[in-house]
Each structure stands twice: as C-alpha cells, then as structure tokens.
C-alpha cells in the first residue's frame, strides 16, 4: 500500500474549540473547517493530519459514532522540552507529567488536550547505559 498522507482523527465534543487549542499552543494550521469537522496540519509536517470530528456525526461511522476519544497520545518531538514546558506553563495548560528524564533516552512532559487527548512533548536524549544493559 502506498499512502499520500497519514491522519489521526479524534472524536470531539467541539472540533472548532479543539482546533484552536492545537493552533494556539502547538502551531497547527487548519486545512479544512466545517461545523462538525476540522483538519489540521503542522507546517513542519504537511503529510500528517490531525483531524477532529464531532463525536455524534454520522461521518464517524457506526462503530465510533457517539463514543468519545480514549487513551490517545499525540507525541511531538522538540529540540528543547524545558523551554516548551515554560511556554506551556505560562499558557496555563494542565500538566499531567512535568518534564521527566527517562532512562531510555527521552526527556518528556505531558499536558491534557481537548477531549482527553494527552499531548506528549519530548526531546531525545542519550539513554542511560546501565539501564540499557538491564533491558537485554
């Protein structure tokens, strides 16, 4: 299969409000806006779409219609997670996890996004060599 783009779609109570969150805090831009659907792209990754669809709309399909988004994490890799933490704290976002250095080679934080989507902001770091030896 050849794909031209990849999309993550979330079921949203309010797609327009959710889209504003991703635009304001993470730099996504709208490519389609309807009352029940918003498609976003990040200028650095034009082949990835973040779509928000009204959870009760028929376009969600019979299996998903009326359900809510659950257990979804959107991960954004950045150069400086500490700088992003300061910016996101100043913006008043709800932190689920403060900046945390992980032994597997990441420094990451998590904030709560619309419709209970967890937005993870992470920076790649050198893994802890002792931890790596224990994993084999």
From TrEMBL:
- Per its UniProt record, what SUPFAM superfamilies does this chain match? Glyoxalase/Bleomycin resistance protein/Dihydroxybiphenyl dioxygenase
- Gene3D superfamilies linked: 3.30.720.110, 3.30.720.120
Cite the Pfam families for this sequence: Glyoxalase (PF00903)
All copies of the VOC domain together span 4-124
Q: Which InterPro entries match?
A: Glyas_Bleomycin-R_OHBP_Dase, Glyas_Fos-R_dOase_dom, VOC_core
Name the record gives this protein: VOC domain-containing protein
- What organism does the record attribute this protein to? Deinococcus arboris
């Amino acid at each position: 299969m050849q794909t031209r783009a990849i999309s993550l779609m979330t079921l949203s109570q309010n797609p327009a409000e959710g889209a504003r969150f991703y635009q304001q805090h993470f730099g996504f831009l709208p490519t389609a806006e309807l009352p029940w659907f918003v498609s976003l792209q990040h200028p650095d990754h034009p082949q990835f779409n973040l779509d928000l669809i009204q959870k009760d709309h028929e376009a969600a399909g019979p299996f998903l219609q009326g359900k809510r988004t659950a257990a979804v994490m959107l991960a954004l890799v950045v150069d400086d997670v500490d700088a992003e933490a300061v910016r996101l704290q100043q913006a008043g976002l709800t932190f689920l996890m403060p900046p945390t250095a992980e032994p597997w080679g990441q420094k990451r934080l998590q904030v709560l996004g619309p419709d209970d989507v967890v937005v993870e902001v992470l920076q790649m770091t050198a893994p802890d060599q002792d931890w790596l030896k224990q994993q084999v």
